[in-house]
Design a protein that fits this description.
The protein contains 10 helices and 9 strands. By secondary structure, the protein is an alpha/beta fold. The protein has 2 domains: 17-217, 2-enoyl-CoA Hydratase, Chain A, domain 1, CATH 3.90.226; 221-269. Helix 1 links the parallel strand 2 (26-31) and strand 3 (63-68). Helix 1 packs parallel to helix 2, helix 3 packs across helix 4 (162-170) and helix 4 packs across helix 5. The protein is globular and about 60 Å long.
Amino acid sequence: MTVAEPGPGTEAQPRTVTAEKVDDGVTIVRLNRPERLNAMRDQLFVDAVEVLDEVAADPGCRVVVLTGAGRAFSAGGDLDAFDVIDGTRSAQPYTRALFALSSAMILRLHTMPQPVIAAVNGPAAGGGFSLALAADTRICSESARFNAAFVRMGLTGCEMGISYLLPRIVGATAAFELMLSGRLIDAAEAFRIGLVLEVVPDDALIDRAIEIAATMSRNSPIGLALTKEVMWANLNAPSLRDAMVTEMHAQMLTGHTEDHREARDAFMGKRTPTFKNR
């Protein structure tokens, strides 16, 4: 799928996903279609991958906070705005090209080196739910709502990685029920089943997400990246032995870095370490 370039006399549209640097090595990535409750379409998928690529390559970014502009995280797929190849409209919005774009967004978020905290600020439905699951952890506002909406549209409950991610986060029993019913759950239930780390007042959500991110960002960039990588790898490890071998290799890598020596010296000297990501 391609996205049409602006023609003569037209202005380029603003990105539907934006990035904003804040203090302590934290970057906020924000879905930016508030007038559509951040519903997803082809351009948003493209913009998300481009922005996440830029953030992933930024040596000054250590932790990412993912959220939505306005009153929603993401209402899911924008069924009225799915364009297909060369900008023509399709009678079947779920095309192979669209799957490729949405999959690229989920994979880019899931595999970027920085830890990602989803700050779910309202509805996270369908693909929006999948996007929140692709983060490494989640907090949400009191007004947040979640559902795997696909099955309620005559489709399967499985799309954009949800059948892989959700059981690993809440367990198979809860995941089956949520995906087969497609029902909406509120913030309190999301916390009870372990979907989110915390529930906070709506007006405190971003500040709390930044606070958690800043705590993580005080550690070395390579330590953060390899912890994330090993954690996800070992969720799929065939045995405890294999998991410990992966841990050992990562620990050996970090043990020979300047940042490890700096952290050790700072601890002994009772001072704040200064990391150089090497």
